[in-house]
Amino acid sequence: MHELAFVFAGFFVGLVVGLTGVGGGSLMTPLLISFFDVKPYLAVGTDLLFAAFTKMGGTVKLARSGRIDWPVVLNLSAGSIPAALATLYVLQAVGPASATMQGIMTSTLGAALLLTAAATLFKALRGKALPTTIAAGQEQQAAQARHWSLPLLFGAVIGTLVTLTSVGAGAIGVTVLMILYPLLPLQRIVAADIAYAVPLTLVAGLGHASLGSVDWPMLASLLAGSLPGIWVGSHLMSKTPERVIRSLLSVLLAYAGFKLIAL
What we know:
The protein has one domain (2-261). Helix content is 78%, strand content 0%. It is mostly helical. α1 packs parallel to α10, α2 packs antiparallel against α3 and α8 (171-180) packs across α9 (186-210).
């Protein structure tokens, strides 16, 4: 019975991801913890691999269409992946299932959801103001951050956040990219965010798997539901009011964030 419920949960999250592009972790992890009563460390570890597998197909498609700015992806990865490995080392030392770490994960997840809610609302209101194309002669400039150190710094923060909570590579990552690369069109920002999330969630997810923090049968059920959900959502995207959906989603995420912090 649980397997079928996980398939439906995967479909729901996939549908929302397809409709809005918001990272599945910001929905899946709190859903697993609050609704299915899954332990935080298992929810985070399983969701990290869930995110890696669901975003892999999108990355291949975007790479073939030439919409990924690889220098942007590499700059963020240079900060986020070492930070993820360092966080995994701390998790191994403390023990992911320990009461202390469970409390840290839950509180940090709540804070990450509040940040994601703010980032989702910001993107809904600000996204339309971004350029839709790169001006002639500005291709190189558009892929350069305001300062070389900022992608490393923000990448490290996101890498730590993602490894602890599985949240941060979606709406927060997009908002960071919007601030760091103001000349980059929104479509290319989203493409870069999806592409750099794959190695980050894969490294963090495999690290969690080595610590025994992945429920493989649950992961299979979630993926079975999410892949058709993403397909349906992406086809409905053009027929739905994006700003309204994102605004409602930000309220839902804020509610989930406050609820987790209050635990």
